[in-house]
Amino acid sequence: MAGQSDTMVDLAAAYVLEPVAAADWLVVAPVVWCIMTGAVLVTLRKRTAVQPLIAIPALGVLVLMTLALLWHVIAGGTVTMTMGRWLPPFGISFTVDLMGALFAATAAIVALAAGIYGRTDVDDSGRRYGFYPFLMLIMAGILGAFMTGDVFNLYVWFEVLLISSFGLLVLGSERAQLDGGVKYAFLNLIATTLFLVATGYLYGLFGTLNMADIAIKAAELRGTAPLMTLVTLFLLAFAMKAAAFPVNFWLPASYHTPRLVVSALFAGLLTKVGVYALLRILVMLFPLEREALSLVIAIAAALTMVLGVVGALAQNDIRRALGFLVISGIGVMLAGLALGSPAGLAGSIFYAAHSMVVMTALYFAAGLGARLGGGFELTGAGGLSTRHGLIAAMTLVLFLSVAGLPPFSGLWPKVMLVKASLDVGAWWLAGSILVTGLLTTICVGRIWVLAYWRPAPEGREDTVPLNPPLIGATVALAGLVAVTVAAGLWPDPVMSLAQQAARGLLDPSAYVQSVFPAEAPQ
Amino acid sequence: MRTVILRSIAPFLTSLMVLFSIFVLLRGHNEPGGGFIGGLIAASALAIYGIACGVAAVRRAIYFHPIAISAVGLLMSALAGVLSLFAEVPFMSGLWVYPHLFGVEVALSSVLVFDVGVYLVVVGAICSIALGLEEGDRD
Amino acid sequence: MEPLFALLVGALFTVAFYLFLSKHVIRVLMGAAILGNAVNLLIFTAGRVTREVPPVIGGGNDVLVQGAANPLPQALILTAIVISFSFFAFLLVLGFRAFQKLDTDRSDEMRVAEPVREASPPLGY
């Protein structure tokens, strides 16, 4: 038994002995908060009217927590808390650096918007199936993935978010949902299993799973261990999670089937967790192997962005077109990963944050548009701009933002990425980013012209009832649009944060020092 | 499967297995056992009861909805970690108290609370899946 | 021992992926079950295989005895088993529900979400 009689054992060899500052609790607070409110909401699953009244304030608190964490990290650098007092690398560490904190804060804002949108979009049966509890648990998984400093723990958070995402995907058990759900579930199972295989090899080679510890030991092992195999496995697993070409086919098969707010949340957050894991593992832990793979990643990136938007051009259903645009955006983020320069990585990080907000908002806009005009099909759509000017205007802003046109938040990361590609002479990568921008403009421009600008088809005006737009949903959309406009007009804070985050990835000494304060970085 | 033998023996077998599962749960801190395996034993006990006496009988017997049991377990586990906040130690640290009950020193810890939470999560989750599948058979 | 285990892991992966290539959801499910076990065995092997001494600290001792098995892979596998178990249970229910609602377990007949002939978007205004 532990406790008082431990005088002969030196506790300092195994334990964190100094008291933990209350501010450091911000590292675990968001995840614990999500799990606890999720558990409370599960017990209230029959009280469908009460659920949003608890969940939306809880998500508001979550946003405040993650913003406080971001502030804490900006002010004081990377923060670490190791579970159960065991010294790292034996205890599981939660380590939050600038990239993790930035992504976590953006994700929390998106989740709050989804919670507000879901109040009107998800009916009583959807709430009995557990929309709000699953929303909190999926946020626990996403935030846990952004914050953990341990590879196996990252796997566990991936599974938490994956199992919650299954629950959200089949909310209501409609035929199309089950169909999409089967493909989503099996292909994602393969991806996480590959991740687990890679983690098993990683442990076999390194004998440790702590990311900071791996970052130290990778240099020593590089000569003897087959790190290239390992990194390729990680690349494949995370590329599958991120829906990069050619392992992206689960996404267009499933993302249009669930409730709209669920699609919006998935499009905003899930693939970005894959991108985050790629940046964390490939750039921070195995920079030389990433360098060796950079051509492969660059080709995959170019194909993903171009083929994604070409797929979007061929769709008649707006939700499916948006699903392909998600894939196209992943390609743009991978371009920065392929470049690996500070500017390129900063562009990727900025673009990921931008994409979280804008893709979610685009689905919201499509949902509101469908409610106003009666459907997601482009054939037969029309006349939306006259039905509700404000929603149409916000949709236009989002279309311009996703295409990367000024003055919205899509422009700056693309500028950074194009410049970074040209700096290293990868003109074809820069070219494909620009061509993707052009094709995206054509794609969203056509949706705008067909669904919003042209007059409603003959005789349809009478058949489609004029549903009033939902206040909560409109507020959620407006909030996200405000974020993209603000980040477009005043890009400097986000840009400098992204640049600092990229520097932190490329030189993990601050990260390592946060986990192992005793070992000074070389 | 509803033979007389199984139906008459199932309540005893189930209560014995649930008792054993609690024993496994409590010995788990320093010896093989713990919340997860205890929960599995309890869930299989309830599954046997369900096979013998039907799903409705199990639902009556556990009184709460299995998902609610899971949720309470999850909350307990999380709260067991949060206790560390008040002791100024990192999340999920083991905290011990040694109260004397009827002259016997009893070692209580936040680890135990966590383990009981895990036990409830496992019982609830496995039960809800098993009961759901058993009900689904009769649709 | 390790080479033998490595071969076994490879064989299990082969079987799992062969089953994954099937069009029937039920076979893919079996593949998922085997895949989970293959990975667990892989992690176990990666932690080095030792014999017979369980990693439990006996009463009165402070450290593990010499030659005890590595406890960390066992903890990892326990976690992975829990996860793959719950995954499998979910997939089983999902496959069953899909079979009930879609009336097929062949993946190439599951075309509700992606219809075979989809309407093209309008080409003109």
TrEMBL record, chain A:
Q: Which GO terms describe its biological process?
A: ATP synthesis coupled electron transport
Spell out the subcellular localization from the entry: Cell membrane; Membrane
Q: Write out the transmembrane intervals.
A: 20-42, 54-74, 94-117, 129-148, 154-172, 184-206, 226-251, 263-286, 292-314, 321-343, 349-368, 389-406, 426-449, 470-490
Q: Any idea where the NADH:quinone oxidoreductase/Mrp antiporter transmembrane domain is? A: 149-440
Q: How does it sit in the membrane?
A: Multi-pass membrane protein
What is an example of a GO molecular function annotated in this UniProt entry?
A: NADH dehydrogenase (ubiquinone) activity
Q: Which Pfam families match?
A: Proton_antipo_M (PF00361)
Q: Which GO terms describe its cellular component?
A: plasma membrane
Q: Which UniProt keywords apply?
A: Cell membrane, Membrane, Transmembrane, Transmembrane helix
Concerning its family, UniProt says: Belongs to the CPA3 antiporters (TC 2.A.63) subunit D family.
Q: Which NCBIfam families match?
A: PRK12663.1 (NF009306)
Q: What is this protein called?
A: Cation:proton antiporter
Q: Which organism is it from?
A: Hoeflea olei
TrEMBL record, chain B:
Q: Which UniProt keywords apply?
A: Cell membrane, Membrane, Transmembrane, Transmembrane helix
The yes or no answer to whether the keyword Transmembrane is present is yes
Q: What is this protein called?
A: Cation:proton antiporter
Query: Which parts form a coiled-coil structure per UniProt?
Result: none
Family assignment? Belongs to the CPA3 antiporters (TC 2.A.63) subunit B family.
Which residue spans traverse the membrane?
Answer: 12-29, 35-58, 67-87, 107-133
The record's principal subcellular location, in a coarse class, is membrane
A Pfam family of the record is MnhB
List, alphabetically, the GO terms of the cellular component aspect. Answer: plasma membrane
Q: How does it sit in the membrane?
A: Multi-pass membrane protein
Tell me where in this chain the Na+/H+ antiporter MnhB subunit-related protein domain is found: 5-126
The record's NCBIfam families line, in alphabetical order, gives:
PRK12573.1
Localization in the cell: Cell membrane
TrEMBL record, chain C:
User: Which keywords are on file for this protein?
Assistant: Cell membrane, Membrane, Transmembrane, Transmembrane helix
Transmembrane region(s): 6-21, 28-46, 75-96
* Top-level taxon: Bacteria
Respond yes or no to whether keyword Membrane is given for this record: yes
Q: How is this protein situated with respect to the membrane?
A: Multi-pass membrane protein
Q: Which Pfam families match?
A: Oxidored_q2
What InterPro entries does the database record attribute to this sequence? CPA3_antiporter_subunitC, NUOK/Mnh_C1-like
Q: Which GO terms of the cellular component aspect does the record hold?
A: plasma membrane
Record localization: Cell membrane
Family per record: Belongs to the CPA3 antiporters (TC 2.A.63) subunit C family.
Q: Which NCBIfam families has this protein been placed in? A: PRK12658.1 (NF009301)
Name by which UniProt lists this protein: Cation:proton antiporter
What is the protein's species of origin?
Answer: Hoeflea olei
